[in-house]
Amino acid sequence: MSDRRPKLSARSLVGDLVTLDQALYEAVTVTRTPTLDTALRRLSAAADHSKLSFAVAAALVLRGGRPRRAAVLGVAAIGVASASANLLGKKLVRRPRPHRAEDSPFPGRHVPMPQSASFPSGHTASAVAFAAAVGPALPVAALPLGLLACAVGYSRIHTGVHYPGDVVAGALLGTGSAALVAGLAARVVRY
Hints:
Elements: H1 10-29, H2 34-46, H3 51-63, H4 65-93, H5 122-137, H6 139-158, H7 164-190
Subcellular location: Cell membrane
Protein name: Phosphatidic acid phosphatase type 2/haloperoxidase domain-containing protein
GO molecular function: hydrolase activity
């Protein structure tokens, strides 16, 4: 009797994940969602350079006290996440951006294709970092900022500039960045 199960290796696992990632991306690209197309295109553009997060941070700073501290943590987390995604992740992995067919069924949903590598999603990393850093410091903001970060991440897939795996990696990077900033802030406060 021979064992017909495929051998599990890192290479085969990565290959399967890439195949799944591309299939999920393709499923999004062929799904008709005209109302979402406009909203997500605008959201994706508004998240460029963390403009949304910085606007929220500015509003929190004006409130002073605990909201101000939350804003400082959030902005610091954006800095760590953005640097990690753009200066390390994209340069190390160099994954090409998703292919957009010239005859795309829904070209109105696209945003301009960035010139940088696809992996990880810097927009997602920064949005999640901000939400994950602000949330524990200001619990009332946790859910709205978390939902906004999720929407920003999905908007990057929907608008055709990232694969789902890029967004997942960006979210993990953003979470880690927030944890690093929170840990460093806690050490500074103790001393």
